[in-house]
Prior knowledge:
By secondary structure, this protein is α+β, with helices and mostly antiparallel strands. 29% of the residues lie in helices and 32% in strands. It contains six helices and eleven strands. The strands form three sheets. The protein has a four-stranded antiparallel beta sheet. A four-stranded mixed beta sheet has the order 4-11-6-9. The protein is globular, with a radius of gyration of 22 Å.
Amino acid sequence: MTALTRIGCLGFLAAFAFAQGQTQRPAFSVATVRTYSSGAPFQPEAQGFLRSADGIRATHVTLRGCLQWAYDIAEVSGPNWIISESYDIVAKAEGPVPDGELRLMLQTLLEDRFKLKLRRETTKLPIGVLAVGKNGIKNLTPVEATGPMEIKRLNGKVEVKHAPLSGIASVLASPFGNMPLERVVDETGLGGRYDITLNLSGFDARDPMFAGDYQTMRDELLVFVSAALEKQYGLKLERRIAPVDTLIVDGGSKEPTEN
């Protein structure tokens, strides 16, 4: 190989390495992240996480909840501020993208704006199990449905339509409403799709009685939701210990960087 050839090869390799180094993670073209002011008026029906084909709009959501959706993981642990602080997020891609790419874009956004240091590990933790109550199901009849599952939250009520029981279990695990905030699996053994409505207006996750004790709130919430399920539909929630994939926030800033 001549010196010129060697130089050419080295140049190509350097260019290739540079190009590889410049490969960027999927990211939104426009995004704003703002801390939700503690003194701002709060309307529960406005709280939520909405995704469209080309973006995300989240109102009064916790970082923990956003991480749960972004990484498609039920359990996230870290400093207290990931559940005590709330944020408004509006993010747009250049055009429609698959749901999986939206998740990657949100990962990039959260890691960049909050300077997060993350790791994963498997730990034995409580999970929720959706099961049939001791007296059997009631008011639960399969419906004919060909469309996607629908979810509505308004005035403390959660309405789910056209959903298999596995889908209802996933709603019970939703990080963006008054739910047990943990992984929930379906062990009812029931097929078909169903319409259900749960009235959860009697539970306030921010009740001073919890004094910031998140685990106590979770425990009481699961009991409350389970009682509502059993009273209306003959279903119940149980808690069991199982290996759970956990995302751990080792570091970061509760104040997002400027938009």
